[in-house]
């Protein structure tokens, strides 16, 4: 097989999923991750439909994921007095099975740890492609050369920036920001299936505050022009939330007072990656780095399906990357359209009082039920080849 030595940047979801399949097909896999260790906890992610389940079952992780599921959380929208004004079922927001991102990453990491090389606490600083490989320089480690390099390093992908161009050319700011604060209520020791839970959400024009949700203890979403802030400065980010939500009623003052108590805190824009192709030479992108759409509802499923397709096409092509990458681009450009029309910010944090009322009405309408069904169908809109079977014949 050609192109056997591969480097994957990112050890969250897409990276370990790709590592699993590439190792399964006989590639020599190295994964580099800037964090010092696998990240625990984090917000909840979900899978929906037969396509997602098929890939996870072929990986042999479906049962373990189901054992670590968080349970279903409904969201009740309330007014300033705490009176119910809208309802969103957890069956819509949580898919078929929901799991903490950290738990899922740990499951995938353990499946690959024994046979794949992991380099934690480091990151790629430069990529130079040659006729026979990709020369990689690291922030800390010694330079190395790999046959192929894969970016699975998120919506702010460094691999994409180094190989394809500046982030501004591929990532569109959607006009909203979101923040998750505090470990999810389900991040305690697992003791079996959870009961159905309820989160409470409050809207003011252009702002949403959620308490007790599955993503985290607190979730904020607000409309804003592109902000200039340091993504590594959590204190400055907390001040943005405090200033944006100052003066609001309901439980918001209590929530803001608790912000300083949470170690888990993450703020980012709602953004969408727009690319015509996910490969260039010997380099390919997978997951959010290729087709990310923040809170679009399909990101984790796209990551595991994309990893499955990318590795499978490489195996079918006996490691010949040019043909394999072309097939991967073709398949995933079509499937990734499921996340291309998400308007989570406009839907969850409407900019006007009238918009909030219309959204609450829509949640109870037949049209919302039809939209949910469309999402179910779109998640399965891919003809999955049985790569493991095809490559062992």
From TrEMBL:
Residues annotated as domain FAD-binding: 5-317
Alphabetical list of Pfam families matching this protein: FAD_binding_3 (PF01494)
Species this protein is from: Nocardia goodfellowii
Coiled-coil ranges (or none): none
Highest taxon of the lineage: Bacteria
Transmembrane spans: none
Name of the protein in its database record: 2-polyprenyl-6-methoxyphenol hydroxylase-like FAD-dependent oxidoreductase
PANTHER family the record matches: MONOOXYGENASE, OXIDOREDUCTASE-RELATED
InterPro entries in the cross-refs: FAD-bd, FAD/NAD-bd_sf, FAD_aromatic-hydroxylase
